[in-house]
Amino acid sequence: MSRLPSADPRPDPETREFWDATREGRLLLRRCRDCGTVIWYPRPICPACHRGDTEWFEASGRGTVYSYTVVHRAFGPWREAVPYLVAYVELEEGPRILTNLVDVDPGRVAIGMPVALRFDPTPNGQGLPRFGGI
Amino acid sequence: MSLRGAAFIAGAYEHPGRELPDHSLARIHAEVALGALADAGLSIEDVDGYFCASDAPGFGGLSMAEYLGLRLRHVDTTETGGSSYLVHVGHAAAAIAAGHCSVALVTLGGKPRSGGMPPGGSGRVTTAPEWSFESLSGVGIPANYALAAQRHMHEFGTTSEQLAEIKVAASLHAQHNPNAFLPDPVSVEEVVASPMVADPLHRLDCCVITDGGGAVVVVSPEVARGLERECVKLLGQAEAIKHTDNGRVDLTYTGAVWSGPAAFAEARVGPEDIDYVSIYDSFTITVLLTLEDLGFCEKGGGGRFVSDGALVAPHGRLPFNTDGGGLCNNHPGNRGGMTKIIEAVRQLRGEAHPAVQVPGCRLALAHGTGGSLALRMGSATLILGKGDA
């Protein structure tokens, strides 16, 4: 686990399965059975074709950095965590997700760099999907 | 139906305060309302339409209507972040054209400086469906914009020095504004040497955090004709929402790619016709992307465009934010849209500071970007002209 603040998420009826899976170290994505679109963030109605026949599947956990920033000034629980990395990671399955890069030297991060999923546990045992170098 | 000429801005007022610990939020809204109405030569009794966003206290339009003693036929509390007020002007014009009101008051107020709010946006975010998938990364507002800046640098070779030129131009303008929060000119070197907030954005790439507010009064052509005050004509207005597009977000453009062309088409003018621009400047990168998206230069060419003093009034190719903008003058309530409209009105009336007044200013554009560059934003473009434009 990283040294970053890892607060509990706030699951709702649409995302409870997603967060439950993080307890087992699995990153679930939602996919439309009709048009095949991979959906992010998870929701039951496909934002591409607007039909409601969607299903969960497990992501590979591999991706590349689409963009990143090294945060040097922050507030609240993040104040003491600086410098830390926030990034958009483009998953192998398509979606670009907002996340943190952990256990990576900020000076060596580059757009396009391959990264792999790891979870940081939250107080109630769920996990926050974050990414480290390969 | 086109809104071209359907309404006029008759009054505009920016609160002179930048730190107002002894003002209630409602009082700030009231003071700017009265200021804008006085500027127009109208009174509270004339107002039959009221527009505000989530910066208004309590129940928004309901609370402020009561506080001000308004008697309304029309109310609109559309919320698109800092761009809300440019949206309100368009909605006010549509309501006026429909006969639903004839004197529309739009107010903004906020006190993040003295009120203990952390820097950044506002809004009812914690109940948003996306909250757990974004906020737990510790992405603050600067980091959000930094993600867009980093990607722009990667794709187009944009540099920190080029971004700094935007702050430099704003600071050259702010030195003439006695109310500006940061009145001292800065150099490119000073901007890039200021502390890093979220790489690649430095402290001086960020806007100020100020208390205060502003208001405008939008009136029908009939009301405008009866006023002695010079009224500014609405020529075009358009709005758009850009979001993360089901996880396929592209950080290289803003919603201005949609609102800009639509506003230009309604106004029947193009970028080459514009004499002055007010561009939302929460951060330097916001300006750069917006200039590209509005068609003042090609995509990716923003860095070169701003590098030769193009934005510096009065003689640059495209003078911008002559009040000092959000970067140096004022960003009341963490929302810069209202002050963008107000400075455009000053320019069209010939009432900007003489050192930055654009000679013969006939056509102005004001653009707002609410929300955030890396996630979801409300973009709104206003094109305004002299009364006979």
Briefly, what is this?
The complex is a heterodimer of chains A (134) and B (389). Chain A is mainly β and 134 residues long.
Indicate the topology.
The complex is a heterodimer of chains A (134) and B (389).
Chain A: H1 16-22, E1 28-32, E2 38-39, E3 54-58, E4 62-71, E5 84-91, E6 96-101, E7 114-121, E8 127-133
Antiparallel strand pairs in A: 1-2, 1-3, 4-5, 4-7, 5-6, 7-8
Chain B: E1 8-14, H1 25-40, E2 49-51, H2 61-68, E3 74-76, H3 84-97, E4 103-110, H4 141-156, H5 160-174, H6 188-193, E5 196-198, E6 201-202, E7 212-219, H7 221-225, E8 232-242, H8 256-267, E9 276-279, H9 284-293, H10 302-305, H11 325-329, H12 337-349, E10 363-371, E11 377-385
Parallel strand pairs in B: 2-3, 2-4, 9-10
Antiparallel strand pairs in B: 1-7, 1-8, 4-7, 5-6, 8-11, 10-11
Polypeptide structure, described:
The complex is a heterodimer of chains A (134) and B (389). Chain A has one helix and eight strands. Chain A has 134 residues and is mainly beta. Chain A folds into two domains: 10-58, no CATH class; 60-124, Beta Barrel (OB fold (Dihydrolipoamide Acetyltransferase, E2P)). In chain A, strands 6-5-4-7-8 form a five-stranded antiparallel beta sheet, with no helix packed on it. Chain A has a three-stranded antiparallel beta sheet with strand order 2-1-3. The mean pLDDT of chain A is 96. With 389 residues, chain B is of the alpha/beta class. Chain B has one domain: 3-Layer(aba) Sandwich (Peroxisomal Thiolase, Chain A, domain 1). Classes of the chains: A mainly beta (134), B alpha/beta (389). The A-B interface holds A 4-7, 9-12, 14-15, 19, 37-41, 43, 47-48, 66-78, 81, 84, 86-88, 94-100, 106, 111, 128 and B 118-119, 126, 129-134, 136-140, 142-143, 146-148, 150-151, 154, 195-201, 244, 246-249, 251, 374-375.
Quickly give the CATH architecture of chain B: 3-Layer(aba) Sandwich
- Strand order, largest beta sheet of chain A: 6-5-4-7-8
Average residue pLDDT of chain A: 96
Proper CATH architecture of the largest domain in chain A: Beta Barrel
| Element-level helix/strand string of chain B | EHEHEHEHHHEEEHEHEHHHHEE
In oligomeric terms, what are we looking at?
heterodimer
Tell me the helix content of chain A.
Answer: under 10%
Separation of the first and last Cα atoms of chain A? 16 Å
Number of β-strand runs of chain B:
11
**Helical amount among residues of chain B, as a percent range?**
25-40%
User: In one word, what is the shape of chain A?
Assistant: globular
CATH topology-level name of chain B:
Peroxisomal Thiolase, Chain A, domain 1
Number of domains of chain A: 2
CATH superfamily of chain B: Thiolase/Chalcone synthase
Strand fraction of chain A equals 35-45%
Sheet with the most strands: spatial strand order of chain B: 3-2-4-7-1-8-11-10-9
Tell me the major beta sheet of chain B. Answer: 9 strands, mixed
